[in-house]
Amino acid sequence: xxxxxxxxxxxxxxxxxxxxxxLRALLEASSPSGAEAAAAEVAVAALTERGVTSGxxxxxxxVGSVGSGTGPTIMLVGHLDTVPGEIPVREHxxxxxxxxxxxxxxxxxxxxxxxxxxxxxxFHGRLVVAGVVGEETPESxxxxxxxxxxxxxxxxxxxxxxxxxxVVLGYKGRMDVxxxxxxxxxxxxxxxxxAAELCALAWEALRPVFGTREGAAFDRPTATLTHLRSDxxxxxxxxxxxxxxxxxxxxxxxxxxxxVPAGEFRLRHAVPAVRAGRADPVVRAxxxxxxxxxxxxxxxxxxxTSDMNTLGRTWRVPMAAYGPGDSHLDHGPDEHLVMAEYLxxxxxxxxxxxxxxxxxxxxxxx
Length: 366
Description:
The structure is a single chain. Helix 2 runs parallel beside helix 3 (101-121). The strands form four sheets. Strands 1-2-6-3-7-15 form a six-stranded mixed β-sheet, with helices on both faces. A four-stranded antiparallel β-sheet has the order 10-11-9-12, with helices on one face. It has a three-stranded antiparallel β-sheet with strand order 4-5-16. It has two domains: 19-171 and 273-364, Aminopeptidase; 173-271, Alpha-Beta Plaits (2-Layer Sandwich). It is of the alpha/beta class. The protein starts with 18 loop residues before the first helix and ends with a helix. It has ten helices and 16 strands.
């Protein structure tokens, strides 16, 4: 699994091997979805400086690899892009503030730092690190490019905030659904419902399917109305639907259409839910490392979606998500990372990589 290296990069002066300097450099490289080039340059420079062969692939992903290639392949996948909205980068009170500090440049910086530690110690196998583009978009083009262009690794760690002592077992799936209803032009005094009214009725008709978002459960579908535009003749809407494991998007879509009085829902994009078991080798390696660092690991499932969903569609390999940060701060105006947690997560991840490699090698030993 050799990453394509399209260009050579020299590390910038502000991206020393210091993990705190790396995090700051990534945060200062603004990278909303579709404009990740500056952050990719920082990531590749940091990987290169740490002894990891790296470059930028055709999708714009920063990809690096290190190791002998004679043992198992472990892939670490974080993402470069953030939601829009700048937050001035600053360090105060042991915290680093900036857009993407939690989601998910902090986890990516931890992966890059751990890869550097692995490169220094030596690794019997191959460790691949990827900072991908477009994770915050429904299409997730960076992860799709990896999925299509790389052989599945022997194990996969996704860089998303779990808290330094947490491990994420799974994420709900996602359906990007569009709705449209059209009615003939008529006078406003006509008793027939307008397109706007029909759209409101359609949303209300879905309540038995999705309920409310309060206490959103992992094992049932939920929906958020993210876009609405209407006049008397035409109404359009977009729904962000989150689905549990085992949910068939086409079956759910048909149920939605059966319930509305008029108009049609159309599926624009979907990824299935994904969930690892507690006995998964990646989960075991991460939880064992958390325990060695003095805490009881917390296993979690998330009602959001990540590139674990995208890659898990066809990569039937051990996987879990891990990274520093409080996910409640995702996308918010106060997004920040506690530096002590960030530094501890690097140690946890580094030990977990070595432990996972040893377990995978033992499994494949004749």
